[in-house]
Design brief:
This protein is an alpha+beta fold. It has 3 helices and 6 strands, in the order βββααβββα.
Length: about 80
Amino acid sequence: MFIHLGQDTVVPTSEVIGIFDLESTTVSKKTRKFLEISEKKGEVINVSYELPKSFILCCDKNKKRKLYISQLSSATLKKRSEIY
C-alpha cells in the first residue's frame, strides 16, 4: 500500500520507518543533528513549501535513506497509513 504525504508525493508503506512530529522531536539536539546531517547528504525531500509539521523517514529496497518533510501532521499521516 501507499501513503500520500502531500502535494504529488506518495511512498510505499513498506519503506516507511517512522513518522515524526517536527515540533516535539526537534527539541532534542540529536534529532536536530540527524536532520542537519540528512540535509547535507541530500536525503531530505521537501514535499511542500508550506509550514512543515512532520517528517517521514523512509528506506527503499536499495537501503537508500530518504527523509520527507511534509505540511501534514504526523497524526494525519498515521491515520492514512492505517486505512489500508
